[in-house]
Structure formats: structure tokens, C-alpha cells
Recover the amino acids of this structure.
């Protein structure tokens, strides 16, 4: 702003217009509902347990792993692949889920990005989670955030809200007033 | 005209752009709060609406205007 003031732009615009650009980086798998939906988009069905249960594995050491959300290894044959052990998600004290999988024999699944390559399950679930979280974020903004802002008078009640889907898969929510 | 643009790309990357007078930037907290539940960690960049190129051009444009007068 100092540079703009020096060249006299502040004289032209009494109220300087400024953009704030915020990017939301997913720091982990935190939302159980989104995680279950992401697993479902991969064609798998998870079992949900109140308490962490032991995962069934190929090696003895695998049996030490526990998780509240479990994808039985039999599920992977449904999507044309194979897993030597159950894959689970263990909820930490901070509410973040950690993927419990085999480091020796990775489970490979089809890339959720739509490419023909096979990727490690841990990477695929991150992609699937980000996509579901993105859709959920759009819904949250349209059904929760914007109506609340209008109700509180933070934005005018007659503000125009548009949802735009672009051919490249990008979704935009545009609010103007 | 104040505008709010929330974008999600095909890979699920999310971003929010708030454009307008200072009052609109207070709305960011509302978005952060709702999106945090989904695991979104906000990283904000503030930027003037003028690009660097426009800022550099401005003195030359003023000089040209003076000369036309």
C-alpha cells in the first residue's frame, strides 16, 4: 500500500479496494462423514466401530494395528484389486484419522483422478477425500455460510449468489452485491 | 462492487477470494470456521487489486495525461 500511496493512487480511490486470497490446504483427514463418503466413491464399503478393533493381516505384526474405521481386505476384490490385509483409519486424540496399512505390500487401487494408472491406497484416499471435501465445502457455503451471513446482516439479503460449474471440473460460488 | 468467490478445482483444492472495501475482509473468519470442520487450514494472502505492471505504468500514464493537457 505504501507504493500505491507514493504514486498517488490513494487520491483516486477514497476506499482502496483490496483482494484477500485464501487457500485452504487439507492438513489431514479430520471429518469422519467425508472420509466414509470418500471410501464409498472408491467403490469400497467400510465398517465403523465404536472402539478400535484389530485389523486382519498377512503378517503377524499386522495384527497389532487397530482402527475404528475398517475396510476389510475382501472389499478390494470388488474393485478388481487385492489387499493382503484390512485397511483401517485410526482416530487420534486431535480428531485426525491415520491410515493403517501395510508398508511392505502396498495396496494398489485405480487412480481417483481418472488416469489409467494404479496408485497406492494411501494416496488415492487423499485425492478422494479432497474431492468429497471440496463438494461438501461448496454445499456448506451455499446452505450454511451465505444464509448465516445474510441473516446476521453481514452481507445484504438481496446479494446475488451463483454456482458455476466449469468444463475443467472447477466449481465456483460467486456472491456479489 | 464487493465480490466473494469460492473456488474448488477438480482435485478438490479450495480457495476464497474476497474483493472490495475493508469491511468485506471481516467475513473471512466465517468461512474459515465452516471450512475448518472439513480439515481446511487457511492460508491468506492480501493483495492490492492493481497488478505490479499497472503500478509501474501509473507514473508514465500520469505524465502522458499531463502532456495531453
Amino acid at each position: 500500500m505504501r507504493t500505491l500511496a507514493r504514486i498517488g493512487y490513494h487520491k483516486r480511490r477514497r476506499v482502496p479496494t483490496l483482494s484477500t486470497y485464501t487457500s485452504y490446504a487439507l492438513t489431514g483427514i479430520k471429518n469422519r462423514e467425508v472420509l466414509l463418503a470418500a471410501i464409498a466413491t472408491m467403490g469400497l464399503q467400510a465398517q465403523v466401530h465404536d472402539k478400535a478393533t484389530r485389523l486382519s493381516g498377512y503378517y503377524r505384526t499386522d495384527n497389532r494395528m487397530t482402527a475404528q474405521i475398517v475396510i476389510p481386505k475382501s472389499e478390494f476384490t470388488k474393485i478388481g484389486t487385492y489387499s493382503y490385509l484390512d485397511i483401517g483409519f485410526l482416530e487420534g486424540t486431535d480428531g485426525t484419522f491415520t491410515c493403517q496399512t501395510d508398508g511392505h505390500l502396498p495396496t494398489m487401487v485405480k487412480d481417483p483422478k481418472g488416469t489409467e494408472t494404479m496408485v497406492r491406497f494411501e494416496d488415492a484416499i487423499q485425492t478422494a477425500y479432497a474431492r468429497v471435501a471440496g463438494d461438501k465445502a461448496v454445499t456448506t457455503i451455499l446452505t450454511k455460510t451465505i444464509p448465516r451471513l445474510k441473516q446476521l446482516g453481514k452481507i445484504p439479503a438481496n446479494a446475488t449468489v451463483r454456482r458455476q460449474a466449469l468444463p475443467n471440473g472447477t466449481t465456483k460460488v460467486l456472491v456479489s452485491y | 462492487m464487493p465480490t466473494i468467490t469460492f473456488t474448488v478445482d477438480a482435485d478438490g483444492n479450495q480457495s476464497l477470494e474476497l474483493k472490495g472495501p475493508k469491511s468485506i475482509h471481516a467475513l473471512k473468519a466465517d468461512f474459515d470456521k465452516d471450512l475448518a470442520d472439513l480439515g481446511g487450514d487457511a492460508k491468506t494472502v492480501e493483495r492490492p487489486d492493481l497488478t505490479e505492471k499497472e503500478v509501474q505504468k501509473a507514473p508514465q500514464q500520469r505524465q502522458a495525461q499531463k502532456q495531453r493537457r
